[in-house]
Every structure is written in structure tokens, then in C-alpha cells.
Amino acid sequence: MLCYGNCRQRKSSFVSLNRIDSELGALKDAVAVALEYANKLGTNAAEVAISKQQGLSVSTRLKEVETVEFNKDGALGITVYRDGCKGSSSTSDLSPEAIALAVKAADDIARYTSPDPFSGLADKALMASQIRDLQLYYPEDISPDELAQLAIRAETAALDADPRINNSDGASANAHTAVKVYGNSHGFLNGYCSSRYSLSCSVIGEDSEGNMQRDYDYTIARKFSEMLAPETVGLKTAEKTVSRLGARKIATTRLPILLAPDIATGLIGHFIGAISGGSLYRKSSFLLDSINTQIFPDWFNIEEQPHLLGALASANYDSEGVSTQDRRIIDRGMLETYLLTSYSARKLGLTNTGHAGGIYNWTLGHTGQTFDELVKDMGTGLIVTEVMGQGVNMVTGDYSRGAAGFYVENGEIQYPVEEITIAGNLKEMFRGVQAVSKDFDLRSSIRTGGILLSEMKIAGN
């Protein structure tokens, strides 16, 4: 990675990015070479993955460029299996000689590891055979100056929005592309390119009593033209920051909780961790033996949609080459499936679900209200817009985290709140979901609106 400071007066041609799709063919060839070497060594099976990324990042503060970073990196990783034993190695040098040495190193390691009857490639029958164009790659010729102007425009809009915004924590504009190739000795060999563009801004506000607050906002998209305008990001950042001024504690109590959409994704993230194969076979999940049991209310659904065009978490196959598929994760509140890789599926005696590497565009069902309507429906309660700390026990489901947000009474926001703790148990929190708003946040792999919970304990004054 190269980083250049004090670089405001650069020309647009300062850094030029080649289209990364021009490397796809050569990377496929490198994977094929590695698999051929592994076969010549007499291994039982092998799998090879290459991931290469390149991009530009420009950060500003107080409308001055602070850093420009250009990165281009990646490596080939190979895993071989010999008589139930596994060995892995990697190389960033893709010459045939370097690849041969990496394959030999992985095989040497496999000869000295203990056998594991659950290791090995995913079953051949599960390999993806239908490769769709998911429209994940939109290359854009962007200069550092252009990215800098995006960040400066966002900061300017935020700083000019309100006189109480008196300082900036900076803005950042990013343009990145990547290429991924995976192959194994089943004969599967495929690759694809992707792009991602983002812009974020963070500012500091101060009230008349000298109390300060900070907040941020961001936009992210596969396609450069689909990002929100910098002025929109800046104004939203200022609005969120100013709304937090005058925050106070509230008395210890129990209240309904309305999680803002970006916080609601975190709640569902804990659910993902609890139903993932690694947690299950280690018996470190509060949702052991929960298939076909009621986890959420009977109106609640979660759909996985891996093939949404242009979405941030779309994929034809997982990191083991297993075909992804539409599936119902939660159906009327019931858990329909765990999230299993080939290894965890074998450990548990279950079927691989194609989740090596993560999840793919989870979409929650909603109850028809907007977020503002849920605020009114809540009556008296707490909107949570920030959580802090790591107080989540995945074995028991106990949940306790620092929080900030807004106190609501009679369906109206009364004042901002900070320095409190919200606590409960994830099982009870899941069962206590009252509603999901229809205005979804689409900036992550979990697509959800705000989530209203029936009640949680709040520790304050």
C-alpha cells in the first residue's frame, strides 16, 4: 500500500488503475496450474483460491486532503488433502515456479498433520453449475482528485448545515475493485469481478454549554453513480450529530426498545453467529438443537436471496464452490436451517448449506409500518441508535451493551439519551420482536428496517 500525505495539489493522472477484469484469465490459469501440480504429487484432493483487490482511498479533514492511499494486493492460497490430513500454504508470486513451491509446501505440511475424518472438499454434487451474471462489477475511471472532491463536498455540507457543527472528524471516499477465482480437483474452476464505492463523513457538534457529540453517515454501492450525493451524506451526518446534543441519562427502568435499522442488523448478526456450524459443533451456541423450533414470533420471516442483481452480498457459489440458493431461514418464526460449511456439516451429520464465507442478502419480512410510525406505535420507550461494548454471551444468549439513542413518550421523541446500558437475553429478545419497519437499510448483507422489541432492562441513573 502506498500512502501520500499533504497531497492536495496533485494531477488527475497521479494514480491510474487498470481494469482488474483484465487479470481474470491469468488468475484462472494460475489456479489450474496449482491444481495440476497437486495432482502430480499424488494428493487425494486440492482446492485453490486467489483474491486480488485494488483501489483508491482519499481522506479529508476540515476540507483539506489528509491522505491518498492506493492498494493492490492479493495472493494464491492452496489446500491439499492427503489420507485425511490437510496442509495449506500461500504465495503472492504467481510464477509457475513459485506456485509449484507453494503446492509442495502444502503437501509437506499435510504429511505431518493429524488426520481429520471431517476435512476435505465439499461434495462434488454440490458444486455450482449455473453461473449467472449477477451484475457485481462496474469499473469506473476515478482520479484521486475526484474522490477528494466527493469527500470535501460531504464535509462542506455537514459543516455548513448548522452553526453548532464546529469541527470535523473527517470524510473518506473509496473506489475498490476485486477479482476472485476458486478451483478444486472436482473440476470446478470459476471466477468473477466485483466493484464497491463508498463515501463516509463524521463531524462534531457542540451546544451552548460546551457539551460535544459526534456522529457519522455513509453511502455504499456496487455502481459509482448509485451512491448518494455527497451533500446528502453531509446533511444527514450533521442532522444526526445535532440531534444528539443535550443527551442525558434516564432512570433505570424497563421499556420497549426500537432498534434503528443499522443497529437491527447487529441483532440479526448475533442470530447468524448462533446458527453457524462452527458454534454448533463446538456447543458454544444458545440455539443448539433448535431446528424446527419457534425462535421468533409466528409472523416473522427471513429470506436468503443470493442472486439479487447488483446487491452487496450476492454470489453464485460460496468459498468452497457450493452453489448458493434461495432459502427460507426463518419461516413463520420457526428456524428452518443452520448455516453449514462442508466441515461443520460433516461434524454435525447434516447437509452442507453453502455458507462457507458468510451469508447472502438476508431480507427480513416487515409489518408494514415506516420507522416513524413505529415510534408512534411504541408510545413510551427508547430508540437505540448506537451500541457499544462486547457484552454478548453466545453460549447463554445473555446480552448487555452500552447504548445511546432517544427517549420517546406518547409517540414523540423527547430528548437524546446516552451513557446507559440495555440488557436482556437474545432468546427473549428474538421472541419479543413486535414489528419490523418497511423502510429498509440496504447497505449490508442484512436487509432490514427498524426492529421494535417488546421490552428490555435499561440501566441508567
UniProtKB/TrEMBL annotation:
It comes from the Bacteria. Residues 138-245 form the Metalloprotease TldD/E central domain. Keywords: Cytoplasm, Hydrolase, Metalloprotease, Protease. One of its GO terms (cellular component) is cytosol. Residues 46-110 form the Metalloprotease TldD/E N-terminal domain. Its main location: cytoplasm. GO terms for biological process: proteolysis. Pfam families: PmbA_TldD_1st (PF01523), PmbA_TldD_2nd (PF19290), PmbA_TldD_3rd (PF19289). Residues 253-460 form the Metalloprotease TldD/E C-terminal domain. One of its GO terms (molecular function) is metallopeptidase activity. It is found in: Cytoplasm. Belongs to the peptidase U62 family. This is Metalloprotease PmbA.
